[in-house]
Specification:
heterodimer, A: 330 residues, alpha+beta, Cathepsin B, Chain A, 2 domains, 6-stranded antiparallel β-sheet, two-stranded antiparallel ribbon, 50% helix, globular, B: 131 residues, mainly alpha, 434 Repressor (Amino-terminal Domain), 7 helices, 2 strands
Chain lengths: 330, 131
């Protein structure tokens, strides 16, 4: 048995990549909560990508693309992260074992479908999941999957499949680990910068992203046919929002938590008020999801125009919110 | 969302797991709370699972009457679609569609069969018949 990194502490998280980042950086000596990892890397986003299809439905992302959080943290912590991908599964496995033997905690990108410890109904072919490996016991890897409450074990053959799954966002065995951290505390300047960047992403000019992306998706919802396919489509929106990586409401609550931390670090009490406001917007995202689900369940009449209106209202609220946020940190 | 509003009604798609959500505690701080999930998540996950299950079931019936090959059944059963299966195997979609024809499927070379079996996480024997 390779000695597992004994000091490693698993912490439950709302989102896989921010959870991995917070657990990984904390292990290597930083003070970093999940919310701070998420906020500091400006991960909050919205993107409606009709040309990327997942079992026939468009990709709707509520955060920046995979690896964005990890990469966004290397500057504020003055650290180089090593990312390695492999064209041979065998080599990928050898390298992972080698790093574990050195006592490192290693991050991996995997598919969720091939991870046996995941609940059966949640196993879809989604390739951008993140988890940490902190040791190996015989043929089993010791896994800290941040979206699960407790550490897991996974047979090496299963983990191999998950690491080398193909398709959209194929992980290609990606593993990552940091060098020595240059700093271990978060600076006020970095936090301010991150907030400005998030405001820029959410208020940006590209019609598919940020607040404009929400409006575009709302227009698409208006055009849906009121039949099975339409209901599947809105179910998909809600699933991308609430289920896959916590999405809409979950990310608002997470970002609100970040703003509370940011208020203390930057000595800007106004951010506390904005956190409260974002908390309310998060509740409205939940209402939007509930409204869609009531239509799917047949409790309410199918009314896609009403749903589109709710989404447009959310876009309006967020547009005002991010403007206020940008002003607060300038 | 306040801690008291964190959904705990249960979501059977989560198995025995709980997922983390952030909610406001009595002091107004956003803290992590483990949630048993809600009907919202459960509904949309089951909807997606059942949609794929319905495709698999339809393929199974067509397979029994010789209108498609077991390959199509297994594709849906393993929660893939044509686009994904093509990406995973590196076989063009129009070729896969041809392989849905039982007579052509029966004549596949061992290499192609192996390729499908590997992509779908099955043995070659499993791939060749309905369960």
């Amino acid at each position: 048995m390779n000695a597992p990194a004994t000091s490693y502490r698993h912490r439950h998280a709302a989102h896989c990549e921010s959870g991995v980042a917070s657990n990984l950086f904390s292990h290597y000596g930083a003070t970093l909560s999940e919310a701070m990892a998420f906020g500091l890397s400006s991960a909050l986003s919205f993107a409606y990508l009709p040309f990327v299809k997942l079992t026939g439905f468009p990709l709707i992302a509520y955060r920046m693309p995979p690896r964005f959080i990890l990469k966004g943290l290397s500057k504020p912590f003055d650290v180089k992260l090593h990312f390695e991908t492999f064209n041979s599964a065998e080599r990928g496995k050898r390298r992972l074992d080698e790093l574990l033997a050195q006592g490192k905690v290693v991050g991996l990108q995997t598919s969720v479908y091939w991870l046996p410890y995941f609940p059966q109904d949640m196993r879809f072919h989604f390739n951008a999941h993140n988890l940490l490996v902190y040791g190996k016991d015989g043929d089993e890897y010791l896994i800290s999957d941040p979206v699960l409450e407790d550490p897991q074990r996974c047979a090496s053959a299963d983990l191999q499949r998950a690491r080398f799954a193909k398709g959209v966002l194929a992980p290609k065995g990606l593993l990552y680990y940091p060098d020595r951290l240059g700093r271990t505390e978060v600076s006020a300047a970095a936090v301010r910068q991150a907030i400005v960047k998030t405001a820029r992403i959410m208020l940006g000019p590209i019609p598919l992203t940020g607040v404009r992306g929400m409006r575009m998706l709302a227009r698409r919802i208006r055009k849906l046919k009121a039949d099975e396919s339409g209901l599947n489509y809105i179910g998909h929106i809600v699933r991308m929002q609430e289920e896959i990586g916590t999405g809409g409401a979950g990310f608002r609550f997470l970002y609100a938590s970040f703003l509370q931390e940011a208020a203390a670090i930057c000595a800007l009490p106004e951010l506390e008020l904005l956190a409260e406001r974002l908390n309310t917007i998060g509740d409205d995202w939940r209402s939007f999801a509930l409204q869609a689900v009531r239509m799917i369940k047949g409790r309410d009449a199918v009314d896609f125009a009403a749903l589109a209106e709710s989404l447009e209202a959310l876009a309006g609220q967020e547009s005002d919110f991010f403007r206020a946020l940008r002003k607060a940190v300038k | 969302m306040d801690i008291s509003e964190v959904p705990q009604e249960g979501n059977r798609t989560l198995g025995h797991h709980r997922k983390a959500l952030y909610a406001k505690d009595a002091n107004g701080r956003m803290v992590l709370v483990a949630s048993r999930g809600s009907e919202i998540d459960e509904t949309v996950t089951l909807q997606a699972v059942q949609r794929l299950h319905a495709f698999a079931e339809a393929a199974r019936l067509r397979c029994l009457t010789g209108q498609t090959s077991p390959l199509e059944f297994w594709m849906w059963t393993q929660r893939m679609d044509l686009a994904l299966l093509a990406q995973v195997t590196g076989i063009w979609q129009w070729r896969i569609r041809r392989h849905f024809r039982p007579r052509i499927f029966a004549r596949l070379t061992p290499e192609v069969r192996q390729c499908y079996a590997q992509a779908l996480g099955l043995s070659v024997e499993q791939l060749q018949q309905l369960p």
